Amino acid sequence: MNHYKLASMVPEKMIEKYDEYLPEALLDEGFGRRAFDIDGTLRWVGQVKALVVQ
Prior knowledge:
This protein is mainly alpha-helical and 54 residues long. It has one domain. It has 3 helices and no strands. The longest helix is centred in the last third of the chain and has 16 residues, at 38-53.
């Protein structure tokens, strides 16, 4: 899963002033990058997993 795919599932992505003029694919890309930190989440899950396994 990546930020683009996650954002494509969000029904309302228009946040910025001119978002209404952008195509859906560009909205998905921008919203996904702003709203989701996939790499950070995976690092956090790895850290929690390491604590639980100990």
